[in-house]
Amino acid sequence: MSKPGSPSEPFLLTPGPLTTARATKEAMLRDWGSRDPDFIKLNAQIRERLVAIVGGQGTYVCVPVQGSGTFAVEATLGTLLPRAGAKALVLINGAYGTRMAKMLSIMGRPYAIYETAEDAPPDPAELDRRLAADPSLTHVLFVHCETTAGILNPLEKVADVVAKRGRRLIVDAMSAFGAIPIDSRKSAFDAVIASSNKNLEGVPGMGYAIIKKNALAAAKGNAHSLSLDLHDQWQGFEKNAQWRFTPPTHVIAAFAKALDLFDAEGGVAGRNARYAANCRILVDGMRALGFETLLPDHLQAPIIVTFRMPADPKFKFETFYESLKAQGYVIYPGKLTVADSFRMGCIGQLGATEMKGALDAVKTALKQLGVSACAPARAA
Ligand SMILES: *Cc1c(COP(=O)(O)O)cnc(C)c1O
C-alpha cells in the first residue's frame, strides 16, 4: 500500500470522498455475506449510532440507501413528499439547493424557491413571510452546509420558523452531519440526510436519512421509485433487519470502523474541533499569501473554503492544481460558485501537519508560477 500524502496517493483536500484512515481502508479487506447474522448486526448498530448523533433515539429511525448522497436526498424527497397535496419551499444558495429543486421537477412535485446569493444565508424573517403568504406550502427543504461556497446556513433559526408555522422541515446535512451539531430535540425536522463519505470519514457508497418515525410511517405509497422508496426500505429492515437489495457490504464495514474512530475522537465535538483548527490554519495561511476568502469568517463552515481567483495573469489554475498534486495534495479541480474561485477542503483524516504541508505546497506552486501577489481582481 502506498502512503497518503505522496504524488501517487495524494491527500484529498476535497469535500468528499476524502482521505480516510488506514484502519477504515483495512476494514474492507474481508467479504461479508449480506444475509449473514454478523453483517445484519453490524447494520443494526450503525443505524442506531447514526440516530444517536442527532439525539433521536426513540423518535427517529435511520434508513440507509445504496449510492452517493444524492441518491439519499432523492429517496427522502420522493418518500416524504406526497404525490398530491404537498408543496415544498426550497431554500437555495448554491448547487445542492438547486439540485433538490431539479429532483422535484423530475418527480413532478410542486415547489417554490427562496433563493439568496451564494454568500448569503436565508433570512428567517423572510422565510416566515413567505410561509405566511402561501398556506399551500407544506414542506421546507434546507441545505445545512451549502458545500458550493462552504457557507453554514442557520439550521436552528430556520427550524424554529418552520415549526412555528406548522410546516415540515427536510435537511440536506450532507457536509455538516458529524462535524456541526444537529440536535433533533432543539431543531424540529422530519429528516436529515447525509452520506458515508463526508465528515464521518467513511468511503463512498451509502447515503442515509434519519427520519421521524411518524412521518415515515405516514409515507407509504408516496415514492415514485422502487429502489428509492425509503418507506419500503424501512419496512424491509423492520421485517428481517436486512437490506432489500444488495448492500454495499465493504462500504458498510468500513463505515463501522470509521464510526469507531469518530467516537474515539470525541464525536461531533471532537471532530468539529479538529476541522475548525484545520480551517483556521488554512484560512490564515492563505490570507498571509494574499488570497481572499469568498466568505467572511462568521459564515464559513469548517468544511471547505472558497478562495477568490488571484488577478495575476501568471496564476494558471490548471498548473497550480497539477503542482499541488505532484506535491501530494489534491484540491477540488473546478468551481461550483458563481464567483471566479477555487476551493480547498479541510475535512477527512487531516490535521495540522497536513494543513501546513498543503500551505507549503501552495507556496512552492506560486513560486513555480512566478506569482507573488494573490489578491483577486477588484469589483469594477
Ligand atoms: C456532497 C453533497 C451532496 C451529495 O453529493 P454526492 O455527489 O451525491 O455524494 C449533497 N448535498 C451536499 C450539501 C453535499 O455536500
Characterization of this structure:
By secondary structure, this protein is an alpha/beta fold. The protein contains twelve helices and 13 strands. The strands form four sheets. The protein has a seven-stranded mixed beta sheet with strand order 2-10-9-8-5-3-4, sandwiched between helices. Strands 1-12 form a two-stranded parallel ribbon. Strands 6-7 form a two-stranded antiparallel sheet. Strand 6 and strand 7 (151-152) form a beta hairpin. The longest helix has 22 residues, at 267-288. The model has no long low-confidence stretch (mean pLDDT 96). Pyridoxal-5'-phosphate is lined by residues 15-16, 68-70, 73, 96, 143, 147, 172, 174-175, 195.
Detail the poorly predicted runs: none
Give the helix level as a range of percent: 25-40%
How many helices?
Answer: 12
Q: What's the N-to-C terminus distance?
A: 51 Å
**What can be said about the biggest beta sheet?**
7 strands, mixed
Mean pLDDT: 96
Rg from Cα: 21 Å
Strand order across the largest sheet? 2-10-9-8-5-3-4
- Count of individual beta strands: 13
Order of helices and strands: EHHEHEHEHEEEHEEEHHHHEHEEH
Shape: globular
Distinct small molecules: pyridoxal-5'-phosphate
Structure class: alpha/beta
Strand content: 15-25%
